[in-house]
Amino acid sequence: MIPAKLRYEIRRLFENSGTEEFNINRKQGSLNVNALSHIGHSDRLFKRRTEVAGIDSAVTIVLDCSGSMQAENRMQHAVDVCYALLTTLSQAGVHTSVVTFSNVVSTLKPWNAPYQRVKPLLERVVCSGGTNDYAALNFAHGLLLRRTEERKVCFVLTDGEGSPNATRDQCNSGSRLGITTIGIGIQENVSRVYPNAVRVDNLADMGTVAFNKLKLAA
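Given the sequence above, the corresponding structure tokens read:
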């Protein structure tokens, strides 16, 4: 269960709402009541509001569907976390996509697909095959590089390593191109593959750990 407060914090961090600032000591604009005491020796009694644009974001979630994800109900927990991330980010106006992988790599959710349609697709994912993590990460980074958003995040939910050296090199390559890659190791230490990683041993904590990690990337 992911705390509502944490969901709210993530949504606020990723919302492309920007900030408001006021420039004071203006000759025109809205009246600055704090400057009324200067009437008689100043003509700068106004303030003007300016809006500072926020950071637009694109996030790709990469979901491991290899055979080992059947163990201890890992896949169901990962599916729940994946959908919670999609819901929270989409409600914040973030563009999202989902990539799944085992031996092959597939796009489960294209950028323009409504997130509400993804849950039944996630529920029907079958776990089988190996861990082709390098191909999945390379593909996900390619999706993100074609986006125009300033902030690009790749979020990987996995319980193993397929090609650790190649995958780590892809992480570093993506970083140089402006992509933040986060690895969530499901009962597995994946820090030698993903420099920005965390291990989750208690599956019930996966959601909270994943959201906290995403919070640091915002």
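The first strand starts at residue 19 and ends at 26. Try to locate this feature in the token string yourself.
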